[in-house]
Every structure is written in C-alpha cells, then in structure tokens.
Amino acid sequence: MPRLQKKQKLEGNVAALTDEAAGDDSLTSALDILGTDELAHIFGFLPPNDIMRARLNKKMRDAAKTTIVPPVEFIVDSVDKYNSAAAMASAMPNLQQISFSELDSRHKYIDGEDPDEHTARFTTNWITHDIEIISNFRMLRSLNIETEHFLNGRYPFLFNFPLLNKLSITKSWDLKWDLEELARLPVLKELHLEWNPQLTGNINSLRALKDILEKVEIIDCKKVEGSFMDLADFPHLTKLDLRDTDITGGIREIGERDFPVLKSLSLPKDVYGGYGQEFLSVSDAHDTISVLYSFRKRRFSSLLKDWSGKLSEDSPDWYDADRRAVYNPAPMYVLFVEAGSRVGYRWETAHDVPTVCEVNWLDPEPHRYSSDYEQYIEELEEINEQVDIYRGYTQPPTEDECKRLLAEFMVDLS
After folding, report:
1. What is the pTM of this model?
2. Band (11; pLDDT cuts 50, 70, 90)
3. What are the φ and ψ backbone dihedral angles of 141, each rounded to 5 degrees?
C-alpha cells in the first residue's frame, strides 16, 4: 500500500478513536483489536497536542509513552505551555523537538548553580518552575533555548542528551556554561549560539565532535576564544560563523586541504578577511577584497557571499557627509556583488535601501553564448538601476564631492 494511503488510513483510525462518542461500542471494539504497539505507531503520525488528547484509557496512555513523537516543534512560551510540557515529560517522554522561551510576566525557571546575584535579587519574588523536566525527554533530537533572564546560572542537565542533533541557545543572558559541555552531545550536527555573554571556552573543545559537526554558528559570544583553524580538518563542516567572538586567525591561513566541504564562512571583524573588517584606507579594502576573491575562486563561489567590510572612522578617508542625519549618507561600506557568475564589489551606505557606487568588476563579462548570459544581463540591469547619486564613482568620493552630489540630488528631487 502506498505510504500516503497508509498514513491516511492510520489518521482515519485515530479520528475514529478520538471521536466525541468515546463510549460507543465501535470505539470499544476498535480498542480491543488494536494493540499498544499498533496504537503507538498510529500516534506517531500526530503532533504532540493531539497525542495527549488521544490518551483516553490505560492502553492509549501506555501507547503514548512508547510513541516516537514526530519532529514537530513544541514551544514552551507561557505557563500553560510549561504545564503541558511537564505533563508530556511523563506521559510522552519520546518527544524529539522542544523550544524554551520566555514565560509569563514574573515567572522564571528555578535558578541553577552559581546564579548571577543581581538577576537573582531582581527576580527573587517571581514564581519559579523547574526546567529539569526536560531531562525526561531522552529521545530529544532538537533543543532550542531563548530565555533572556529566565535561566540564571549553570544547568548541567541541558547537555545530557545522547541523541541530540541540533542545539540552539540564543539571548540567554544569564545562562552560564562552557563549550566543553558539548562533548556530552556525541551526535550533535548543528550548533547555533548567539548573544550568550556568559558562554566561555576555547573553540578547540569542538574537536570532540570533529567527525559529526556540520554547522557551527557562534555569534556575539565574546568570551569564546581560540583559533578557528582548529576546525580546519573537520570533514563534514559546511558552515562556520564566528562573528563577534574572540577567535583569532585569518583567511590567509587557510590551505588547499583545509575545510574540505565548507560553503559558508564568517570570521570576526578583527581578523584578516573577517565579517565587518575595518580598513584604514580605500586601497586597503581593495587589497583585502582581491585576496578574498582569489580565495572564493579556489573554493566554493558562495563561501564569502555575505562578506562585508567598512572604512574605519580612524581612516583619513572617512567622513560623515551629514552629521544631522540618522545614517551617514556617504558610501563607507564595501561588499561583494554578483550578476550571474560574474563577481565584483562596490561601496555603499549602511541604509536598509543603500545608496550605492558603481561596481568594480573582478571577473570579465561572460560570453554572450554562455549558459548564464541571459541571467547576467538581467541581474546587471537591476544592479545598474540601483546607482543614482554616485553614478560614475567606483569608490567613495571625497567629502566635498559627496556633499556636492547630495546637494545636487536634493535639488533634482525638488
């Protein structure tokens, strides 16, 4: 029987089992026919809330306890959702995916070991809840935590899930832990850590997961240190993002055999080729971009696709064209541009809709009979249409030129 028809038949059985007429003879007959294992298999096609509602008797409750719950995210973002999660911890322990977010006003999770004293005093009269209920979900594959001040201190049990594939911890200001604890997650493939000021450790700790990690994002975790080259021999690592950390190294250290399958790379701005790198002159930017471009050509073309840099305010070339404006209208940022397979770079402003300079093309124009020529022409026209104020400029104009161009543009608008 095709899988889709089988799934529809199973879901039809569940619909019958959970019908409002729970006392009908037909329901009793169906329950007598189906065993616990069969019910657990049927429940495996339902989201968590529906499984909980389908627990009508002891047989169904026993089935729910053995059901491998589909990887549908259950988000704990209120006291009601917490109470549901607490019930699931005993009734449905094979949950595979869960997220913990903020609770209701003046509610928090019980403080862990070594809590931040200021936060503990501020929240001392809040109603507390025990997040250790999560320990009962031994089949957990995906865990997401975004709790701001609702977790305070150390919670070692958060890293005791032998089947966890994905871990995301963001905006957890008072959660204290070290990268070494990740060694207790032996099959972790994807790691996303962002805005965790209490996170410590050396990135070398990830070597315990060398043969399994595929994506590593550690962003704005300023106490994380070490050399990113310690991950250079990870055979399955496709994405590495280390922005706003204390990681050292630089693009020029990467050899031909390093990071063999890496497709996306973002390094801290203070290292050579890092995301947001600041330049002391416009010419410095050109030299760095030439190195990055060469690196891209040798590896995956998308490797540094999202890279950008900017002119340092300490540069003699930097200026603020209009100090009254919310944003500097001068093109002080530089980034890659693509049209088809052709790569270049341009200077632009920091606005959501930037004002841009002309493109400095690094590749020759593709041949008119090449496979992507039509795509190139279409994207090139779109890029050229974006240029208005700084038409004819391939790098930031001088301060006097910029002010003149802005004044002329304003006159044209009026």
Report:
1. 0.86
2. very low
3. -105, -25
